[in-house]
Amino acid sequence: MTGVPLSHFLVLAVALFTIGAVGVVTRRNALVALMSLELMLNGVNVAFLAFARWRGDALANAAVFIVMAVAAAEVAVGLALVIALFRHNRSVDLDEATRMKG
Amino acid sequence: MTAELLIFYFMAIMAVGGAVCVVLPPFGRNPLHAALALLVSFFFVAGIFVMLSAHLVAVLQILVYAGAVMVLFVFVVMLLNLKKDELKGARWTPWKVFGVGAGLVMFTKLALAVVVVTEGETPVNLAAEGFTGYGGIHDVGAALVTTYLLPFELTSILLLVAIIGAVLVARRQTGGAS
Amino acid sequence: MLGNGASLAYVIPEGILGVTVALVMALGSFKPTRTRGVLAAAGIAGMAAALAATAAGVSWPDGTVLAFHGNIVSDGMVAVFRLVFLLTGLLTIVFAYGSDEVDTRDFGDMTAMIAASVMGMCFMAAAADLLMMYLAMEFVGILSYVLAGLKREDQRSSEAALKYVIFGAASSGVALFGMSLLYGIAGDTSLAAVRAVLVGHGFEPLGLMALVMILAGLGYKMAAVPFHMWCPDVYQGAPTPITAFFSVAPKAAGFALTLRLMDLLLGGIDGDAGASLGHGLAVLIGLVSMATMTVGNLSALKQTSVKRLLAYSSIAHAGYLLMGVATIPAIMGPSPDYTGFRAVFFYLVIYLFMNLGAFLVVTRVVTRLGSDDVSAFRSLGRRSPLAAVVMAIFLFSLVGLPPTAGFAGKFYLFYAILSQGSAFFYILALVGVANSFISLFYYARIVRVMFLDKSPDTRPVPVGALAAVVLVILAIPTILFGIWFGPLVDLAGWVFI
């Protein structure tokens, strides 16, 4: 792929990562926050693979494989907690879930 | 403007567009719409992975992310029967404004740094000796059972305890045999 | 660098823990063995076996061994940190056994999670590769999210745990992005390759950003300012034995990983690039330390819930520990001096005893009286003299008053900083002393309430035989190590020989 410079892929990775990060901080809906988290990790994967392609290093592909598995596990636990919170609050709004103060 | 560059721009714009649709309030109000936007984004990211010759990872992106993780999200949205977010207004606390601003600053800094550092780097020629099969199952599989064997095994244990943990956290109080 | 087969000998304690997890899950599957006693016994037996093995020198090489194709390091530091993690896990299972905050139906799963968590922490202390670091961090993290949400019937618990997941995973994501950038610069995920780049042509500017991102992710785990927000809510929402576990073990693991990262990157490094990076990091970590101590101590002053107070105290102690981490300039150059890093380990061991002890008293009070408010501790001196006296010992040790071990720990940390010699470190030490002084007020308030306040409720608070024994076992080192700290200093000597 000689047509596309490395920087293009990396800017895409940074873009996905940043959009995801903004989403995690800003969104009130817990599910959308978890989705933004997945975006962040996608950005990371693009960065890893872009660097790997430019060096011909196949190890990074294995690293991305493992990162995907970890992300899936994380999401599973996160969604389980969303369900647990929903049982109490009847909503998944994070701003409403502020019983604790101090 | 080669064909490759055009394809890249198309896929990148679609991927980023999907991402923006997940995050921005006007679009992402309905969690189901947000999930579908995320699905679109994942699909085009898989395309980007193919452009980067990471074929196994691209297929896994479709199978695991678009296939399993998104199904899980849609399942939870349906199970909880979530409607559109209440139109109470975006509630822009100072904290959130700071977050968005910091995000923009971080993006510009990182993007600039990345562009500067990677000037003039040329990719490895994959048709050459020793690089054929890059990104395919053999290469990745070999890495996973030699160099990355310990992380691989640890990940499998992680998946097990994560499943147990998810069940532990979400099950009802009454009944529930362990 | 060892291959996979030969490396197995260096992860035997972790293997024992893996077997423990499987054993507890198996025992929990059959009705006859699904009792609190059996499951606790299995968990404790496994931890004790791993503890005994480590103490006997299993998987404890004299020098440094790079194992599993460079993924982990095995050396004395890993072994001594294993002791910390295993002891904490073991005591947590004992606390949980006697606490009514953990349902019997959940007990087996909880024990398995704790054993798995300890295993993950051992890998956190040993990781020498960026991917392994991320994986170990996430392993411990995901298990922490689950343990935090254990009290399903308590709304605050689920809420705290959910926020913990979202922001914890986000901070790990930030750390991972930094790791991907470092990989891009270095061409390989091993830290040795990153160090080679540092020595070769420095880090600016991308590498520096990447390193800061990684430290941000680690800072969340250690509950350093400004990533400390999750700490009080999660600590208050979790069952008290789990809170005790959180306050010592994952924190210690986070510090172990940070120390390891600093050593692998900058230990004994020559050259200007490394030196400027090291000094920059020292200032950054020093500032974070000052902020963390101050925020922790000032916030603790107005707490009425003892669990929340101890959470802020935990944040403050992370600040004190960061002082030791800030002694990075000392480890660079041809003759590295690891006094600061050793002081961190020394303090962590002492912190284990005094903090777990304090939390055990809180566990008993919550179980017997149903509340963790300061008012519940009124006239505890009369109603349960043993608990009150040891609590006073633990609290005075947390302040750092002589002759408790807390004083010895703080003394070692201050000594390590002051021997750096520069003005910045003098200021850091000054802030540390001032903060210890401030902390006296909120710890002493509890002591005063226990011994001087009258309570309308004059029921005695029986502590229970098992808890009494454990309390004494924890209280003895808290005083002993204040006077006879030699052996502990020797143990700390294993941290980066």
What are the main properties of this structure?
heterotrimer; A: 102 residues; mainly alpha; Helix Hairpins; B: 178 residues; Four Helix Bundle (Hemerythrin (Met), subunit A); 71% helix; globular
Please provide a brief summary of the model:
Chain A is 76% helix and 0% strand. Chain A is mainly α and 102 residues long.
**CATH topology type of the domain at 1-88 in chain B:** Four Helix Bundle (Hemerythrin (Met), subunit A)
Number of strands of chain C: 2
Share of helix of chain C, binned? over 70%
The topology string of helices and strands of chain B comes to HHHHHHH
What share of the residues of chain B does DSSP label as strand, in percent?
Answer: under 5%
Outline the structure in words.
The complex is a heterotrimer of chains A (102), B (178) and C (497). Chain A has 102 residues and is mostly helical. Chain A has three helices and no strands. Chain A has helices at residues 6-26, 30-55, 59-89. The longest helix of chain A is centred in the C-terminal third of the chain and has 31 residues, at 59-89. The radius of gyration of chain A is 17 Å and the shape is elongated. In chain B, 71% of the residues lie in helices and 0% in strands. Chain B is built from seven helices and no strands. Chain B has 178 residues and is mostly helical. In chain B, helix 3 packs antiparallel against helix 4 (55-80). Chain C has a domain at 268-497. Chain C has 20 helices and two strands. Chain C is globular. The relative contact order of chain C is 0.09. Chains in contact: A-B, A-C, B-C.
